[in-house]
Amino acid sequence: MTDSAVVAIDRVSFGYDAAKPVLREVSLSMPHGKVIGIMGQSGCGKTTLLRIIGGARQPGSGTARVLGTLVNGLHGSALYALRRKLGMLFQFGALFTDMSVYDNVAFPMREHTDLPDELIHDLVLMKLEAVGLRGASRLTPSELSGGMARRVALARAIALDPQLMLYDEPFTALDPISFAVIARLIRRLNDSLGATSVIVSHDVKECLDIVDYVYFMSDGRIVAEGTPPDMRMTAQPFVRQFVRGETDGPIPFHYPAPGYGEDLAVRAAHD
Amino acid sequence: MTEGSEAGGLRRLFERLGAAVTARIWRLGFASRFFGYMLLHSGTALRRFHLTIREIYFAGVLSLIIILVSGMFVGMVLALQGYETLQRYGSSEALGVLVALSLVRELGPVVAGLLFASRAGSAITAEIGLMKATEQIAAMEMMAVDPIARVVAPRFWAGVISMPLLAALFSAMGIFGGYLVGVKLIGVDEGAFWSQMQASVDLREDILNGVIKSAVFGVAVTWIAVFEGYDAQPTAEGVSSATTRTVVTSSLAILALDFMLTALMFTGGNAR
Questions:
Q1: Hey, are the CB atoms on A84 and B136 less than 8 Å from each other?
Q2: Distance in Å from the first CA to the final CA of chain B
Q3: Candidate CATH numbers 3.40.50.300, 1.10.10.10, 2.40.10.340, 3.30.2130.10; the one for domain A5-234
Q4: A153: chain B residues, CB-CB within 8 Å
Q5: pTM higher than the cut 0.90
Q6: Is the predicted pLDDT of residue B271 greater than 50, yes or no?
Q7: A86, A91, A95 member nearest B142 (Cβ)
Q8: Total structural domains within chain B
Q9: In a domain, B156, yes or no
């Protein structure tokens, strides 16, 4: 491979409508074997960036390369060929509710390989063992807790040993124990699979514990980047506010509004 | 001043009307492309037929109770009402013909179609819509599996296969209900009831045309159901309004198509 970066995003802009760009000239590069965090507030464009990496959205301008393939204009069987090398964990797991845990994990194998049932059986149990849920293989998704569902979805995402794992808010609505379990699994699976992982999240403190490198996004731009120790020590006001969870700073507490007195006076005049 | 604002109001009215019409035409075009794409990607549903059989169970087998019970009652009512009218002209033995023709030509396909739309069509829309709202469809796409081939097409073919069978069962059950009321309860001659029916109901003219009708309704209802589910807004509200739209649109489609098919099939035959 001439280009060692697993994901190379070059000056990518994107907007659902032209007046409100979601991403503005974002550039980043993710080396092989690392766990990379993309953090920022809700609506800062981080999930859109993840969708572009997964080929679910096309960049408006700029180029995106994933595993050496140009994502721009990719569709149909070429896009599916790329996606077979990716694994994605959705926010709430997105397990197929009409299938058992076992069938969920077996799904990608049955769809994409001609492996005999006995082999699929062994592979599924190995994947479930990796996330500690071999005993739950006969349950249905409705019988699982939020954390367990997330782990089953993780087992399904790694079913075909992906080279790149994408995590969309993997920690949302988890109790502290499940949270720690998922975080450890992400790190461990990345290292044992020899994969590269991208985590999109706003749970900064916990994320900083497991990632190798982190990008901070705000309003469609990358505003800061660095290793976790650097980010904890940084003097940049945005990162400081974000890492410490302060309510006011570069990101204001108030949504833009006309003067408070003006608004109240108008009401008073009407009453 | 008033004239100006009136003209402005009128213009806005036309703009809104135009926008609504254009949006509907766009949607129809999108639904047609969706239909074509679904047919092109039906290979999986037909090759791995167990996927379709599973959906036949949900759409067809689980609709059996409502279809059979309704068919029975419709046949019983037909016999009561038919007997009232026929006996005035002294031709109550023709009750079997009346019940059978009404069911096989019209009521079987139409009522079974309406019931199928509200029982199975709404379920299909809600299921696909919820799969979309919970990102199951997106997850499938990220796993490089085409959801139209894997989720939509099997449901479509299941509906197309189930509908004529359900309509046939509806008619059969209705005739049985008519027999119970007409012969067993009211006392119409049993031999006349069956023999006149056999003599008057034509395999091609009546039964085959009824089967064609129900097949057309099956395509229409299931197409609307899968499209509404796939096109639903991925929220609780979006799924619920998509489900309602499925029932309303497919009911209207059944009645409109029924008129067209009846005009083509039966009026032409009689004129000759």
A1: no
A2: 65
A3: 3.40.50.300
A4: 139
A5: no
A6: no
A7: A86
A8: 1
A9: yes
Min Cα separation B88/chain A (Å) = 57
Which CA distances in Å does A83 have to A69, A86, A165, B14, B217? Answer: 11, 5, 11, 47, 38
Name the phi and psi angles at B62, rounded to 5.
-70, -15
Chain B residues with beta carbon closer than 8 angstroms to that of A117: none
Residue at B32 is within a domain = no
> Among B136, B145, B146, whose Cβ lies nearest the Cβ of A94?
B136
The label of the residue with tokens 């782990």 reads: A151
* A63-79 burial: b if 16+ Cβ within 10 Å, else e: ebbbbeeebeebeeeeb
Q: Which residue of B has its CA nearest to A56?
A: B142
pLDDT of residue B115: 96
B9 domain-assigned = no
The beta-carbon neighbor of B142 closest among A83, A91, A107 is A83
Q: Which positions in chain A have a beta carbon within 8 angstroms of at least one beta carbon in chain B? A: 54, 56, 79-81, 83-84, 86, 88, 90-92, 94-98, 107-108, 111-112, 153, 166
Candidates A54, A96, A112; nearest CB to B142: A54
Classify B1 as helix, strand or coil: coil
The span from the CA of A164 to the CA of A32, in Å, is: 9
B19 part of a folded domain = no
pLDDT tens string, chain A, 271 residues long: the values are: 445 788 999 998 888 877 788 888 899 999 999 999 998 888 788 888 999 999 888 888 889 999 988 988 888 888 999 999 999 999 888 999 999 999 999 999 999 999 999 999 999 999 999 888 999 999 999 999 988 999 999 999 999 999 999 999 888 888 888 888 888 889 999 998 899 999 998 888 788 889 999 998 888 888 889 999 888 888 888 888 888 777 777 777 777 788 887 788 766 656 5
List chain A domain ranges.
5-234
Closest chain A residue to B131 measured between Cα atoms?
Answer: A96
The pLDDT assigned to B2 comes to 56
Furthest-apart CA pair in chain B: how many Å?
81
- Residue numbers of the domain that contains B141: 41-265
